[in-house]
């Protein structure tokens, strides 16, 4: 009978600990040094076992940290519009944000076409990281037509929900969102901001949000999002 490779033995025992709850979601795996000493194997063997756990979806790897047991994925339904803050709270977690950049600039040709602007009209832009219970969840970029949202740059968007400000301060009724989804891999600054290794699977979305302003439905936001698939996924119900 063929002998089970050492890495597979380590992998099987760690899976048993994860599935039994001995290693809970979010818990770090034993260090490489501890596993080497416990099983009497090389570092290469230990890393092979952890890589197998990662590829099977049992653990996630973060830059500069030990691999940890993958958190349960949170679902957001595609049938309704909610802000990131609302969605994180709905999932029973505590939201927070980090503002990476913001300001005013001239719109690009593509932005002008999508937002119904004229050449050289100003737009407000910002880039933020959203956290759930202190861990990164998504990186989001937003562009708004400044003619609709004068002085929006004066709001603190590390403390305030964007949609809440649009609804309460600018009296916008958010109506619909048109978005596209695709699978991508983390790279460069995206890896750094989300604190994951390069080539980590991510869910990317981009699109346009519409709202009612003075009894007219108009485009109010362009967005791009990068979600950690280990912590977030969309669900969609289709009917015939």
From TrEMBL:
Task: Give a single Pfam family match.
Answer: GntR
Q: Does the keyword Transcription regulation apply?
A: yes
Please provide the record's keywords in A-Z order: DNA-binding, Transcription, Transcription regulation
- This protein's record includes keyword Ribosomal protein: no
Q: Which GO terms describe its molecular function?
A: DNA binding; DNA-binding transcription factor activity
By its UniProt entry, which InterPro entries does this protein fall under? Bact_HTH_transcr_reg, Chorismate_lyase_/UTRA_dom_sf, Tscrpt_reg_HTH_GntR, UTRA, WH-like_DNA-bd_sf, WH_DNA-bd_sf
Every HTH gntR-type domain range: 4-72
* Membrane-crossing segments per the record: none
Highest taxon, organism lineage: Bacteria
Output the GO biological process annotations, alphabetical, semicolon-separated. Answer: negative regulation of DNA-templated transcription
- Name the UniProt record assigns to this protein: HTH gntR-type domain-containing protein
| Organism encoding this protein | Mediterraneibacter gnavus (strain CC55_001C)
